[in-house]
Description:
The structure holds two protein chains of two kinds. Chain A is globular and about 75 Å long. In chain A, α5 packs antiparallel against α12 (about 205-220), α5 packs across α14 (about 240-245) and α10 packs across α11. Chain A is mainly alpha-helical. Chain A contains 16 helices and no strands. By secondary structure, chain B is mainly α. Helices cover about 70% and strands about 0% of the residues of chain B. In chain B, α4 (about 80-85) packs across α15 (about 290-320), α6 (about 125-135) crosses α9 (about 180-205) and α11 (about 225-245) runs antiparallel to α15. Chain B is globular and about 75 Å long. Chain B starts with 6 loop residues before the first helix and ends in a 7-residue tail after the last helix. Chains A and B meet through α1, α2, α5, α6 and α7 of A and α2, α3, α5, α6 and α7 of B. Chain B: One of its GO terms (biological process) is transmembrane transport. Chain B: InterPro entries: MetI-like, MetI-like_sf, UgpAE/MalFG_permease.
Amino acid sequence: MRKNKKNKPDILKFNKIKKSSNVIFNIIFIIASIISIAPIIYVLMISLTSEKALARYGYHLIPREFSLDAYIFLYQEADVILKALLISIIVTCVGTIVGVILTSTMGYVLSRPNYKLKGFLSWIVFIPMIFNGGMIATYVVYTNFLGLKDTIWSLILPLAVSSFNVIICKTFFKTTIPESIIESARIDGASQLNIFIKIVLPISKPVLATISLFLSFGYWNDWFLSSLYINDSNLLSLQALLNNIQKNIEYLANNPTAGVSLQQYKNQMPKEGVRMAIAIIIALPIACIYPFFQKYFISGLTIGAVKG
Amino acid sequence: MVMVKGTKKNKQKIKNVKRKWRKDDFELTLLAAPTFIWYILFSFIPMFGIIIAFKKYETFPGRGFIYNLLHSDWVGFENFRYLFKSNTLFILLRNTIGYNLIFIILGIIVPVTLAIMISLIYSKRKSKAYQTMMFFPHFMSWVVVSYFVFAFLSMDKGVFNNILTFFGGDSIKWYMESKYWPYILIFMQLWKTVGYNMVIYLASIAGISGQLYEAAVIDGATKWQQVKYITLPSLKTIIVMMFILNVGRILNSDFGLFFQITRGIPGSLYNVASTLDTYVYMALRSSSPIGMTAAATFFQSVTGCITILLANWIVRKVDNENAII
């Protein structure tokens, strides 16, 4: 090992790209990085610009007139926003918990080598990866057979299990949990459920973190299920709200400030700024959180890519 | 278990196949039951729903889905005939398959190239920073991204028109002009997926044994030869896997991309931005008869399944190592 370490720099010293190539590569990646994150910075700046300046000068990277009007307006209309935020948070939390439970149990069962139904269940997990009923059949079954229309479950259950996640779990359990631990627990008379909860889960934190991340980002970002199954405005998540106000933003305005009629208030509302502000409210938490969890994401992706 | 030679081994095998249920099996089945039920309800029952395509599906008040399905009339290929008659099918198929082919090709070439480049950068710290920034678009939903795009393309306020008018040009009605949209859609798809895919390939590159490169250096291989003879062949497995999975989705499209970025596909952009998925979605929202659109989704499901199996079969013929099934 040590010899290797000592040798490596020597040999690979001759294996670097040219200085000029390095500079060029760096420039390319700096440009790519800017393209990746510029839009959100830009939208943030728009949301911090006063409506007057937007109307006059259009969108600019540096606010011509700095103002918090859009956010103040949202604060006044907090009931709508908070309701949507609450739905988003409930769906994300409940969905992630349900999803992790369903995914990890199935992953564990499939990782047991002598389980009688292993082959059958493997197919059950695998077939949906290559064949599905399509949007129409799915829609009809969810609304007509499962009665999910306008319930919060329509936002939670469809995304709870994905075969990809089950396979990540299975691969992890197979490769990292020593058979001997489980065997000895069996000999001591523990039931499989006990083994799973008391032994397997505590040593599987990395994979559980990965799955939770995949799920929670999926739930937080979902607007498609809302647009199909939700008509009730009490069940709109933040994403769905943003999706709806593309066409009609005025329905947000219903708590006029003192001395202003509702119509005046609607006319005065900082429409452009508010749209961008809601986009920021959705995007910013993710932008702040994801760098810390990136390594879990990458590990999950690489585990999933192993044939198992 | 100790394996014994000869006839006993065969007995052992038979025993394994016809083994009685043990307590273990029972407990594991209980553990798997909730997820199994989920798969039945949310995956397998909709699969049977594809026969809606051959029926004149109607809902009988107060009856469930299965009753409706059984009591709707069979219409054979009537729904398909209707679909083939409509002029839109050609456009839908052209867009769906055309965009997907471009996405598959660019979606492999660009991230792989970038992954190889970023693995060669001197400073590991910088490389991490670039990865983090380029990973960012993956975490944005298409709804949010559509607002990002709007900030650039808005008619009277957007950046592009600001720049154009600043240099004395005329502003362009971006959301009305279909000729720009293929490029915008392709660019946005790349914008959202390149960082993510780059990280996947980069993880594979990191797994390549350093000794291969050392040997290559000793043999006097140039950097370019190393990429060609070591890096790319090592990435082959993962590239093939991504390729097979994407080919299986050739008739599906990233619905959000086409629907959200164009702000709901206005009429002027219909010809360049509508795909099978958006067509089905619009039909669902507009309460037109379900059978017609079910014919379109029947195509998607069946073709998807066939292409995946076909692609896998071809890959297996050429190179057994890399088949996924």
